[in-house]
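Notebook entry, structure prediction.
Reason for the run: the old model in the group folder had no record of what sequence produced it. Starting over properly, with the input documented here first.
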Amino acid sequence: MTEHMTLGDGMAHLADLLDRVAGAVQSIVLKATPLDGSPAMAELTAEKPYRTPRMQTPLANTTTYASVLGFAVSDATKAYAHLLRHPELLVWAPFVNARAGLDAAAYAFWLVEPHAGVEFRVQRGMAFRLHNAREQLRAPAELPTAKDLGRNAVASVKESAAELDWTVSGRKQRAAVGGSELPFPKDAIDAVLSYRQDPGYESVADLAWWFYSGVTHAAPYALMQSIASDEARPTGVPGVLEAPIYISGKQMLIAAASLGRASLNLGDAHGRYLGLSLDELHSLDTEFSNMIVGMYGAMERGEAPPIHGPTAS
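New structure, fully documented this time:
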């Protein structure tokens, strides 16, 4: 039965589930109003000492940044699900989507981590804004508006931090305000993937960042992993060989597992922070975990979907 099953066939149910996960997470992360009794509401009652003339709603600012990133996570997850339905046509594109979604989930999680506390939450929002402003300042001269927005944002952060007696990192340092420094992507990805996991859980953040970043930036070390060099054959031209290009179902499953787990963990953190109901999300979480374990086991046993499928030479 599995001889005629394509990777697209084998991944179809997972793609459908990823779509549902993305929809459920999106419905949570786009909410910004806290409910009574939530950590967010408790922080709002303690926000006043952290307001400044140029930053009058610091907590709302932080939550808004997280919501925008959260929507990007949902968008990337839906795109990955779409690409899974036709993996026989694609080799590297799904991993670019996975990397974008993991990045967004990681920093959104950092902003809404439920027990950060009001002071660190405000600092994290300011550090994230500072990071974004510095990126705006890198805009080309033909985009003066972006540069002006960046300069204004940097000034706003510095002035507000000065009023709160917080330090601000230098231009060539990682964005940091007070005791909060923007984490490196790999560390931020590790945090969101490790959330709600058993202490013995081994994060795939190192592998994900190394491989997906390599694919995104067209690094040969990453692209060459899909080329079966041990199956290379002569072409008749001296020094030129021909080798098949493969799609790995196992690699696609691991990427889907990482992206789906990051999405679900972000949804949980955002929902807990605002005091939202998480019943639907947790039901999907269980279904997702069971599907990933079942599919991985089937691959290990040589069942469907195929572990490798040649696509071209």
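Summary: The mean pLDDT is 91.
The old model has been moved to the deprecated folder.
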